[in-house]
């Protein structure tokens, strides 16, 4: 079945005349999979529809936020009501405190929070705060972890940079990048060495506690605990970037799943329910350093925007609703659905004679076209990119919408049905057979 993308191709050609690469964020361009991207017209539940009239089962979910499905009735209704009241005031509202309380309830380490507009802003501000609080300048990040596109963290980042094979971006001042120490993920000896040598100069270690930007890579047993111990010993802060894995690795995020209390946490995606929201928060004594309570400056015209707060509140309300007697809660249902899909994919891969790596963390999942275990950027990058391309294109042709890169994670939503999962497994059987025949 050949996919008709004629209108999308035309739209893409026009968009390229007005926007670099035709897109507002690089991976959307599909350049890494050598085809034109479908232009999206609408989305509902588990499905996304392009301007050519094709329907897809969506496992991108706007790169994570759409955990309750697209255009959920409760979110749409709440937003319709909210929009009548004005779209932005730049003044305090009750909605901000409500969302703050809901987040704190799910992640008690977040004693205080500051809302911002993107994950990039959240990690950028959390780093400034860590530097302001400790009076130190150096930070540690892990190779293949992506924390947004600001200067300090755009160093050996995963995600789009890995997709396009750009280890470092031009335009990041050397003087800034010099303060960023990069270490392989999951390598206890490497981080111990760095902390032994430079621990007293380090303001913070920032980590994706479940890494979703080099494909999905899970922390080895005891690894996060080691980061907690090392930061405490050095007087450095531990920042969990849960922009992606927050409310997905478990309802309380990776910190609940692995039982680690970070000093600061960055959130995004789900807390905005598909509108532009992110946040950073954590220990009260640290957060009180933020202006106007303290001297570390950070601000935002649209921060805490009422529409965005509304969408976030409604999303968390649905995720935390008490289930009927004997039924699993929302996040457990998501985990079970994801498990069901992955098991089906595993069976089909085996039937096709492929040995692949399957990873899951709650409602996040990923496949590596790699016979060997994947636990860091190097092992992730050793996966077969050509095999991924064949798999990706076959899935797209069969109406399964995945991220167009082997360095991204897939997301399950509450709207995905058993029929969706079954259809996806059947499509994968065909895609895996194509890969096996390469
Ligand atoms: N941190 C993580 C873990 C992310 O996955 C992302 C984006 N995918 C970001 C930060 C940056 O978020 P944003 O794209 O909203 O700036």
Automatic annotation (TrEMBL):
Instruction: Look at the named UniProt entry and state the broad enzyme category this protein falls under.
Output: isomerase
- Stated family: Belongs to the class-III pyridoxal-phosphate-dependent aminotransferase family. HemL subfamily.
- What Gene Ontology terms describe where this protein resides (cellular component)? cytoplasm
Quaternary state and interactors: Homodimer.
- Keyword entries, A-Z: Cytoplasm, Isomerase, Porphyrin biosynthesis, Pyridoxal phosphate
Pfam families this protein is in?
Answer: Aminotran_3
User: Gene3D superfamilies from the entry?
Assistant: Aspartate Aminotransferase, domain 1, Type I PLP-dependent aspartate aminotransferase-like (Major domain)
Q: In which pathway does it act?
A: Porphyrin-containing compound metabolism; protoporphyrin-IX biosynthesis; 5-aminolevulinate from L-glutamyl-tRNA(Glu): step 2/2
State whether keyword Transcription regulation applies. Answer: no
What species does this protein belong to? Propionispira arboris
- What is the protein's name according to its record? Glutamate-1-semialdehyde 2,1-aminomutase
Entry's Gene Ontology BP terms: protoporphyrinogen IX biosynthetic process
Q: What InterPro entries does the record tag this protein with?
A: 4pyrrol_synth_GluAld_NH2Trfase, Aminotrans_3, Aminotrans_3_PPA_site, PyrdxlP-dep_Trfase, PyrdxlP-dep_Trfase_major, PyrdxlP-dep_Trfase_small
List the catalysed reactions: (S)-4-amino-5-oxopentanoate = 5-aminolevulinate
Where does this chain mainly localize? Answer: cytoplasm
Q: Where in the cell is it found?
A: Cytoplasm
EC number(s) reported in the record = 5.4.3.8
Q: Name one GO molecular function term.
A: pyridoxal phosphate binding
Cofactor(s) the record lists: pyridoxal 5'-phosphate
User: N6-(pyridoxal phosphate)lysine occurs at which residues?
Assistant: 269
